[in-house]
Amino acid sequence: MGKIKSLPPEIIAKIAAGEVVERPASVVKELVENALDAGSRSVKVEVQGGGRKFIRVIDDGEGMTPEEALLSLQRYTTSKIDTLEDLFAIQTFGFRGEALSSVAAVSRLKIITRKDGQVSGVEIKMEGGTLLGSEETGCPPGTSVEVRDLFFNVPARLKFLKTVGTELSQIGEVMAKIALANPQTQFELFHEGKLLAHYPVRDDPASRIVEALGKEVAGKMYFFESRNGGVKVSGYAADPGLNRPNGRGLHLFVNRRPVRDRLLSHAVMESYRNLIPKDRYPVALLFVELPPSEVDVNVHPSKWEVKFSDSESVHRSVIRSVRGMLEKTPWLKEPPGQRGNELRESFDLYPHGEGKTSFPVSWPQAFRVESGTAAREPSSTFSFLGQIQQTYLTFSSPEGLLLVDQHAAHERILLEKLLTRFSQGALPKQPLLLPEVMDLPAEEAKIVEDHLADLARMGFEMEPSGRRTFWVKSTPEILADREPMKTLKEMIKEISSWGRDADLQRSFDPLLKMMACRGAIQAYRPMGREEAQSLLADLQNCTYPSHCPHGRPTLIKITLTELEKMFGRR
Fold first, then answer.
1. Which domain holds residue 479?
2. How far apart are CA 169 and CA 198, in angstroms?
3. Rounded CA gap, 359 and 368, in Å?
4. Strand, helix or coil for residue 173
5. Which of the listed residues 201, 233, 263 is the one where a domain comes to its end?
């Protein structure tokens, strides 16, 4: 007998089940998506033991006839596609015909279903993929799928499951994602008989954001929308100040299908570049809609992955849409109805006009000037009050107080100026009367030699003088009196971490941020009225005025309404 042989059907079934059913959350996802494809308006999910012991999904969809129910438990049987062409224009969640048979292969499964209009339904029982029986039963229209003892016959898979809490958390995340994309359907999640999540029918996804993502995001998610040809991008993204240590705050959907996609994740992260701290992730809800023929969802049996026919166009569309919202800095705008009118005229710490300075700013509208437009006419008066600890600038206006971190604000201003000049060619440099000599370790000397042109664009003009020695002939103008040689050494260490396949345009960012930080006004530095007003005016002209390059806020506004609450007036 040869080495190559056909596997027994029971092994084939378990291999297939392993691709579809990774954990209890996978079962919930597949069954709920089947319910949605059946036109359900209400889906109830009950679990026990984190889903390991028991999962039941009850829907009020169209249901199945006894013949259809039995057929659905066989591999590669589906009502979603008929031809090869259908496979490349998927408009349903399910289509492969593997889910039910895979779940049945690794559990004790029971289906109770009745098609609307029929007198009775059918109850089917299976164990480990083997049919135990089928009988007529009374039941409401719709389908109930009950899964017990998941992986009871695959102990190797069972031992890889996590704690009850972890598995339940995964189920909750799946339910939240599905609920966000399907506001027209009611969802309920129970664990051990206790209601954990309830998503009533809503008019749009915005109504479900707090329900699905928690109270933390209330009032901090902002709508964005754009269309580029056949690609529509929409959703809600958070104030940069709301960020997380991992990517679980990113919720991505393609044609309402929840996905895990590096291209879309990268596009959202790129939109927040220089707005949130390093190694932090934004919170965003992203919907991408495009013709089904332009996206391949048949990448993996789990259906979490997709491929786009024009990935570059999708990537650009997402960045353009999210950045368009971020540039408007809506979190700096006061919500309607929050202004206090009764004290507006009297709220001024300079009642006789002393110290008043006008800026082309609309408080509390956006602190920026639209590109291509002239500076706005002064629409509000800011009074510079002074510094706190020679670090924070304070201004008053008829609508409240404005606190500005002088270092963070100047850092943002300098970075945007540096990015503009760098994109145009090279940064302004200052020649040194006497060149500085720099000796470097052999590995760093090789890095400098490979990046002499890049360093020259940054303003550091260097010339080799031996194997490990360089003459530094000029330094960036911005660092003229800010220890430029120390910054150069830090930049060389940063460049050494790039690697051969680095995205150079993106890699320059930390170097420019480093220069902006070193060149910016530092904390604990006295500042007069004219300099403070100039700083605020420059911040107003920034594209992203609200946060420094490291993700810290540049300014904090305290509205009159908030002040009144602090003093018990409301």
1. 348-570
2. 15
3. 11
4. helix
5. 201
Give the whole-angstrom CA distance, residue 139 versus residue 117. 12
The predicted-structure confidence for 43-53, as pLDDT tens digits, reads as follows 999 999 999 99
Q: For residues 554 and 409, is the Cβ–Cβ distance under 8 A?
A: yes
User: In angstroms, rounded to a whole number, what is the distance separating the alpha carbons of residues 296 and 294?
Assistant: 7
pTM of the model: 0.79
User: For residues 111 and 124, is the Cβ–Cβ distance under 8 A?
Assistant: yes
**Angle between helices 484-496 and 504-519 in degrees, nearest 10:** 160
Euclidean distance between the first and final Cα of the chain, in Å?
88
Is residue 527 within 8 Å of residue 406, measured between CB atoms? yes
What does the pLDDT look like over 403-438, one tens digit per residue?
999 999 999 999 999 999 998 988 999 999 999 999
> If you ran DSSP here, which 8-state letter would residue 190 be given?
E
pLDDT value at residue 3:
66
Q: Are 145 and 151 in contact (CB under 8 A)?
A: no
Q: Is the peptide bond before 364 cis (omega within 30 degrees of 0)?
A: yes
- Structure tokens, 364: 């509390």
Q: Across-strand partners of 234? A: 225, 287
The domain boundary residue, chosen from 151, 185, 201: 201
Contact indicator for 167, 50 with CB cutoff of 8 Å: yes
> In sequence order, what are the beta bridge partners of 112?
123, 144
Q: In terms of DSSP bridges, do strands 400-405 and 392-397 run parallel, antiparallel, or are they unpaired? A: antiparallel
Q: From residue 169, how far is each of 245, 340, 560 by CA, in Å?
A: 17, 43, 41
Asked if residue 1 is part of any domain, the answer here is no
Query: What CA–CA distances, in Å, run from 209 to 183, 201, 251, 283, 476?
Result: 10, 13, 11, 11, 46
- Cβ atoms of 190 and 172 within 8 Å: the answer is no
Under a CB-based contact definition with an 8 Å cutoff, are residues 409 and 527 in contact?
Answer: no
Within 17-98, strands assigned E span: 42-48, 54-59
Whether residues 61 and 92 fall in one domain: yes
Q: How many residues in the chain?
A: 570
